[in-house]
Design brief:
853 residues, Threonyl-tRNA Synthetase, Chain A, domain 2, four-stranded antiparallel beta sheet, 31 helices
Amino acid sequence: MNRPLTLVVSILLGVSALFLLLSLISYSSTQVSGSSPAGANLMGTVGALLAHACIGCWGVAAFYLPLVILGYSLALWREYDLAFLWRRLTGALLLLPALCGLVHLLPEHLCDSWLISWDQCQLRGLGGSLGYLLCGPQDLKLDPPFLGGLLLRWFDTAGSVLALVAVAVLAVLLMDLGLMRWLSHLWYAIRASTMRRHVVVEGEERYLSEPYLAPAAPRAKARATTSVHEITRRIAEEQALPPDASELVEKIRSHRKALEQRASDEAAPAEADAMPSSAALGAVAAPASPSPAPAQPPAAAGSSAAASVAAAHAEAEARNRPVKPRAKRQLSIASDGEYVLPPIDLLEEPALRRTAEHEQEKNQTSRAIEEVFSHFNISVQVVAATRGPVVTQYEISLLDQAMRVSKVEGFEKDLAMKLGTEGIRIVAPLPNKTTIGVEVPNRVKEQVVMRDLVDEFDPSSMALPLILGRDAIGRPIISDLAKMPHLLVAGATGMGKSVCMNSMICSIVMFKGPEHVKFIMIDPKMVELAGYEDIPHLLSPPITDMTKAHAALEWACKLMDGRYDALRQVGVRDIKGWNELGETGISEKLAKKGVKLEDLEHTDPHMSYIVILVDEYADLMMVNKEVEKSIVRLAAKSRACGIHVILTTQRPSADVVTGLIKSNLPARICFRVVDKSNSRVVLDVSGAENLLGKGDMLFLQPGTSLPTRGQGVWLKDSEINAIVEHAKQQGTPVYDEDVINVGAVAMLDGEHGEGSMGGEWLQDRQFHEAVQAMYRYNRSGADFFRRKCNIGYNKATAYVEQLEDLGFLGPQKGTASREILKSWDDWIELLKAQGLQWTEEDDIYHSPVERSA
């Protein structure tokens, strides 16, 4: 039901309730009995007749009807959750006879005047005809005789009261009025008023509840957090706010500003000694900068509980959003160096959810799913429905035990036609459950924002946190890249790959400083990652020249080998063990072997994590297929030494996402693709072709075979720019020139796999002859080298690719010959720089131009 229609129904119910209430209040038996002069009802003849009928049937309990109608009117007006409406109405109807029976058992002398006014003397009670039928005294002398008192005959008075009270309690439970919640509010209010005591904190008078006076250990540069139970308790005490709450709120805010100024001046030690812990005060953590979040500073936590609630609600009203308990808050604290992490205030708050509309949509869709399967003679029942930001997962149970689960999987298109939507996915069965999952897109979709997810995990427990989004039932999808250990992201153009890449970069930059993690960004599109230039986390500027991309990957392979050699010398298994030892521990272990730290290729006592991002892997493969060997080597070995790879591609075909890539990248994200074959290439199962797009994804976690559906994080450009600008203000990047050196591949003297050119070209005389022939005839290409050097096609192709990696040949442009980018003198200078020596009589190192002359 849309909002305008809901308002209309609410108003009609309210008017009806008022009409009936006024009719009952002004009712008299003279209005309908034909007496002279006749009485007058406030609502006229219609009101008199309606009141006469209601009072004749239910007696005093008739006043219960306008109250119920008015209650549902207010519920519709304020958009309360009206799920299971039929169950609630059943409870409301069941309560009416219970009230009639209980009222009719009241002593007669208490209601003589009422009986005379209502002309119900023959019923001898206030419960009307229904009350007399249940609990009225049997009197056969009346004409006609009234055969009432059904309950009294069998249970007597005490048993009747007990039975009617049990029915009334059952009716109230079915109506789900939230009485337990109101009783808990009353309990907390009474408990707070009786247990509050006077204490003095920092020379100021404050009030604290008894359970929150325990001493706490001091904390520096951090603020305590409040548990969910404490937030719930404070919200429950909202009714007990003092009349001067506004003054207390202003006092709290002034204390907050003073504390933030003190924290900025690094006066944390003195503040930590006077600061109670989170268990003692239940203070809500706040960022270092002023935040609109519902937070309370540590100094203000010593105030009364009522003042705390007032402060939280005052700030919540400023945002037009309800108070929301936060599990954790990431603070803007300094990392090991001088780098300060970005505050979470740079991220935007999530929008307010419309719970009433969501519940109504779930009920309608549940009935539609059961109806579709019934048309095919399949008896199912929707046993649960869990709403996510974009899709809702409905759990259905097969009532026919002989029905095969595989038969249900073919009803995706039938459900899509019946529900009028696309993107339906059937998971048969759900993991570790005896039900089948049906994922149906929501009519009103919600954005998944990073601010809402930041509070739901502890970033200190992850080496490289990646905030990816929420799954189909609303749970956060947050993973540690260090445990993945590599990630493949695929999907068609415009389906959300670039947004996913930006969210992963920003989630790492938000929680880890440049001394902890470094980036190497390869951007064939030239614009996607250009905005991250000059952040201090970079090892090199974003690489847009594909001739340099292979050099960067080869440099990473060389670094990997050097790190593994250092780990072996020290005797640790991974980067975590190396960093935990520190410089002193590393030196002690090396001294036992007679080795110094300076003798190792990796001499830094702290290893930073390195994340290599390739935005369009398919385009990189088109330019140089040799990069696959470097990618495979890194994916296969680099986990323990802290080097991790993230690849994205919009063409997930078998020639791009090869078997070697898939086997070494177990974590994969697939957005919408064009057909089932692409989905199977990435995930080994179909389903990605039915996604909705715009961030709708399937996430295959390491160690699992079934992907999880989710909605990716939507990060706005303004949020990305704010995070990047904050990072740039903290420092400038220190680039490693070897990463972006075009000749880096040539300069490697390390080990290479069998069949790889690597550094073998330096001693390959036939390769040098091919280079001289290229300059002599000003031509290049595999066919040219085959004829001039009398070599095979594979070797000639390897020569061409090696010259391209060295920067001497340009990329392939159709059928035209490759462009020669450097001169003969540059070739000779490169050989001399590598330490190659030759005699003057060696003709292949003489200028081919002079030789031809």
